[in-house]
TrEMBL record:
The active site is at 65 (for ompdecase activity), 67 (proton donor), 67 (for ompdecase activity), 70 (for ompdecase activity). Substrate binds at residues 16, 38, 65-74, 123, 184, 213-214. This is Orotidine 5'-phosphate decarboxylase. Transmembrane segments: none annotated.
Amino acid sequence: MTAQFQVRDRLILALDVPSAEAGIRLVEKIGESVSFVKVGLELFTAAGPEFVHRLRQQGKRVFLDLKFLDIEETVRRATAQVAMMGVDFLTVHANRKALTAAVRGRSQVPNSALKILAVTVLTNYDSQDLREMGIQHSVAELVTARAALAAEVGCEGVVASGEEPQAIRQRVGDKLVIVTPGIRPAGVETGDHARATTPAQAIAAGSDYLVVGRPIRDASDPRAAAEAILAEMQRAFDARSARKGAEC
């Protein structure tokens, strides 16, 4: 393998299901094909921290996608609680006070490996949505500005669609890990994602991790769907490594 990592560690399976039982069933269907899973608002509300601990006991890495945004004290204390769970990633909206508080909360837990990911612009937003919120910047301008903020305050990464990694890299270089949701293999409907991309497109642009939910969850054979995505990711990472090698 050209890439210096196992590609299965770069595919994050979104457990977008309503219960712990449904989450465990999906994890069992996938087996060892995927080592990293995302727990979002729906599942965390239904199953709580106990489910996160259960996943970790099964050897899974966990991305806790809770998108914190609140007053600093609340974000700081909540982030410290997340850090004590031993999860790998936590999302926080890209607001300076919230991000700074999250970084401070994480630092209160000795030897924590938690990475704080700044949510730049949700993948279901487009320029019209931003204008309705009173934001006159383009999506790309806002994403890159928020990525720069994330790097400035000490976050380890950002969440951004597959359309923005190249612009993020131009702004902040390789300082940040880029995690990309809204991934849809060719031929799969984009659903409610306004800025969806294929695995190959996102990786070619500079994404490091891909989050995939419905294309795997709703497949007739979820493990086969995951394996097909992994194969596409492997080819894309190898091509990107070869391209970088040629530029050196």
